[in-house]
Amino acid sequence: MAVEDILLALDEQCREECQAINIAAKEQVxxxxxxxxxxxxxxxxxxxxxxxxxxxxxxxxxxYSARLRARNAxxxxxxxxxxxxLRESEKRLQELRSREDYAGVMEGWLKEGLARLSGKVVVxxxxxxxxxxxxxxxxxxxxxxxxxxxxxxxxxxxSDAEGKVKIINTVGERLNRARExxxxxxxxxxxxxxxx
Length: 196
Fold this sequence. Notes:
This protein is α+β, with helices and mostly antiparallel strands. The chain has five helices and four strands; from the N terminus they run αααβαβββα. Helix 1 runs antiparallel to helix 2 (52-94) and helix 1 packs across helix 5. The longest helix has 48 residues, at 3-50.
């Protein structure tokens, strides 16, 4: 399975999980907005009793402040939802090794790294992945050395024999590289309805 397919699958899983989160967040946002509206109405009525001209000026200021607080609360809630979705994606990636398609994922990541290296490669893996990596590299007909010296939830770090070129294709590194793109995609999924 290609990395793009994995990211698409993760995106689909994230979309489904995020729908449930989005519903709860929308309810929370509505409560915040309702509270802000009530606060604004109460403040406006109190000011109108004193003097109309003074009250109008004060009401505008208070309403703006309440709307700003409500909008900030909405933004914060949206940001928290996006972060939660990304944390869930990261959690699922931490369990990648236990998935049936992990060998294919590992093979794709190794091939991707090998495409940028020549000659003998040194492959640093988690001890749990050293046998799989060796098997895949043998099948690919590559001259290699496996060094099971990193503690990672999946993937590998490849380098040339001299260690001058290093390709980091680990779960964590790939997630870090994709984080901003995923953040935008998750945000678009969660909040596309609100902007319509």
